[in-house]
Input
Amino acid sequence: MAIRNAYPVPFVPEGITDAGDMDNSFPGACSSLQNLMFDPSNSKSVVGRPGVGLPITEFAGFTSPTFVSLQGVIGTYVFGMVSTGRTAAYDEPFCYDLINNVFVTISGVTSSNVPASLPTSGAWTPPAMAVIGTKIVITHTGFSGTGSNFFGVIDISTPSTPAWSANNVGTYALTAVPSFVANFNNRAYFVIKNQLWYTDVLNPLNATNANQALTLGDNTTITALDGLPITTTSAGVLGALIVFKPSQIWQVTGDATTLAQNFMSLSIGTSAPRSVSHTRDGTIFMGPDGHYLVNLYGLILPLAAGQAQFQDLRIPFTNATTPSRVASAYCGLVYRTSLKTTLYSIAVNYDYWFDTRKMRWCGPHTFPYDCASAWGENTILSGSQYGAKLFLSSVNDTQADITYSDNGVTEVFELVSAALPSQGHMQVKQVVETMGELNSKSSNTFAITIYNESNAILATAQVKTLANTGTWGASFWGSFNWESQIRVEPPYSIDWNQPAVFNKMYFSVSSSSGVDVSIGPFFFRYQDTGYLSEN
Output
C-alpha cells in the first residue's frame, strides 16, 4: 500500500560547501566529497578519485635524499631542487626524464654553488623557477648572497647534458638574494622585497642599464608573479605581469622604456605564492578569505559558480595553518590545492579540487603535497611527509593503468550531504523508502547512514553492488552480470534498519574506491507525520 502524505525528495551531488544546510547553499550541496571527483561523462554523478599509486621515482642514485623543495615540468622533464647528503644540509638540482623514467645528470654542481636546504615546516619563502631562453632560473632563499651565489641557473642549451651554476646578474647586479622569478617579455623579472628587477631580453644573466627595476606600491614584499593576457576595448589583447602582495595586486604592462604599472586591488592579495596558477579562464589564487580569479579582462572575482559573489568553500582556506606552504596546480580543467588547515578544531592536511567546468569544489582528498606541477592531464606531486619521492596523479579516471591507492594505502571515499531542504511543511518527517544510484565494476559494499541535525544516527543500511564483468558483444549469455560500455548507475532500494524520524536530515555514503565506483542521484520518500517538532 502506498505511503500516505508522502513525496519524493531528490538529491544530486553537485559540490562541497561550508554551509551545513542546503537551505543556505545550492541544491546538491555536500559537506564532504572525500576522495571523490565529478564524473567527466555523467554530470550528475561523482566517482572515485584516481590514486597516485606508488612513486614514479625515489631518487635512487642520490645521496640520502630527503625533501623536494622545488619542481617544475618542462616538456617531458621534471627539474627541481632536492635536499641530499651530497653536501649535507644543502639542496642540489635534479632532472628527471618522465618518458624514460631515468635521471639526467646535471653537471657543474659543487659544494660551493648550491643553496642551503630550507625547513620542511613553518612559514617559508618557497623556491621558484622560470625559463628564459635556454636557461632555467631558480630563486632560492638558501643562497648565501655572497660572490655569485644569488640564484641558480640550469643551462639546457643541450637538453641531454644540462649544466648548473650559481649566478648574479652582470653589469648591474642584484643587491640581495631574490625571492621569486618570472618570465615576462623574455626577460627574467626578479623580486627583491617590493621591487622588480628585470634583465635583458633572453639573457637572465645581464642587465645593461642601471634603471632596470620597478618599485611597486608600499614597502610590503611581493609574494608572487604570473603572466596573464589582458583583453582591452581600445588596444586588443595586451601581455601583462600580475604582481601579488599580501593585500595588493598590481599589473605591469609594456616593456623597457614603455613599462607601466597600475594597481588592480589595494585590499586583496595573497600570502600563498604557490596558490597562484594560470588557467584557461585567468589566474586563480588564494586570498585572505578564499579563492579568487583574475579573469582575462583584468577583473578580480570570487571563484564561484555563475555570478555568485560568495565562494562556496572558504573555511579550509581562511583557517590555513601556514599559507606560504600551500601548493597548487592546474591541469585537465581542474585547479587543485593542498594545505594544512583546521576544520572543526581538528588539524588536518588536505587536498581540494575545483572543477572549472562545473565551477564547484570537491574533496577533501587525502594525499597532500608540497609541490605540484602540471604535465598534460597529469600532475607531478611531492611532499615532505613522503621523503624525496615523485608521484603521478591524474584527474582522468578512464586511463588504462588507473589505481586506487595512495603510496600503498587503499583509498576510501565518503560522500556527506549537507542537510536536505526543509520543504516548508512545518512537520516532523520520516523516511522509510529510499532509492540510490550506485555503481561498481566489481562487487562492492556501500555503507549508508542517515543523521539528524544533531548528528545523531537515525538509520543505517548497506548496499552490495553486483560485479559487472560482461559487456554486450564480448561475452556469453549466462556467464556474467551484463553491463553497458557506458557507465550507468543502476538504482538500488535502500533497506534501512529502522524508519528515520527527523526535523532535518543529512546522509553519508562510504566505501573503498575502485574501477567505475560511482554515486548518482538519491531519492528519499518523505512522509509528513502530522505533528510539529517538540524540541
Remarks:
- The longest strand covers residues 429-439.
- The domain at 9-30+415-528 is CATH 2.60.120 (Jelly Rolls).
